[in-house]
Design a protein that fits this description.
By secondary structure, the chain is mainly alpha-helical. About 50% of the residues lie in helices and about 10% in strands. The termini are far apart. This is HTH crp-type domain-containing protein.
Length: about 200
């Protein structure tokens, strides 16, 4: 039986080679130099390196992990589960746990942004969209996630809520970017005793 092979044009191969060379050049930056750069600059370099590596090896983006994978701090994740179980019933602990699991499964690479909208979270959790703000607010109070407002052009108001995972809890993507983010982010408030266990 014939095997299907993806054809690569000369232009594509050339682009992959250029991306590989650029990624290699960025990887030569010394730890000493990177240490003195602002966190945002280190994150930008890490994201650029990761994007170039993906462009250089487009057929290996999935690798052995279909859909990608998320790195977890086992101790802090377990502590978060315990803290959620200890919530009073009025705080909807089952839905908060479901939301936390969905957060871990839907992280944007190298930013920690949660890739589900409020409506998508509501549909997955099985609740009304208005309840998602309360549920995610509980995770935010625990320090598990943070919330930003993203302005939408032509729409009034504070903007759409966008959530990010605390990098001390989980991460999807470059370890260098995670370290830079974690250095500028406090561990979850209820879990500060586990700071040394962050992975």
């Amino acid at each position: 039986m014939a095997q299907i092979v993806r054809l690569t044009t000369r232009q594509q191969r050339s682009g992959q080679e250029e991306a590989a060379q650029a990624a290699e050049q960025l990887s030569l930056l010394s730890e000493e130099l990177l240490k003195h750069l602002p966190g945002e600059a280190r994150i930008a370099i890490s994201r650029a390196t990761h994007a170039l590596q993906k462009a250089a090896r487009p057929d290996t983006t999935e690798g052995l992990w279909p859909g990608g994978f998320t790195m977890l701090s086992r101790m802090q994740t377990a502590a978060i589960w315990d803290a959620i179980r200890a919530l009073p019933s009025d705080d909807r602990p089952n839905q908060v746990r479901h939301a936390f699991d969905l957060v871990l499964l839907n992280l944007r690479q190298d930013t920690g942004e949660v890739l589900l909208t409020r409506d998508q979270l509501a549909e997955e959790i099985g609740c009304f969209p208005r309840n998602v703000s309360t549920i995610m607010g509980t995770l935010e109070k625990m320090g598990v996630i943070r919330r930003e407002r993203r302005k939408i052009e032509g729409v009034r108001g504070p903007g759409m809520a966008v959530y990010f995972i605390n990098p001390h809890v989980a991460w999807n993507g470059s370890l260098d970017a995670r370290k830079a983010q974690a250095s500028e982010t406090r561990p979850p408030m209820q879990l500060e005793l586990l700071h040394g266990g962050a992975s």
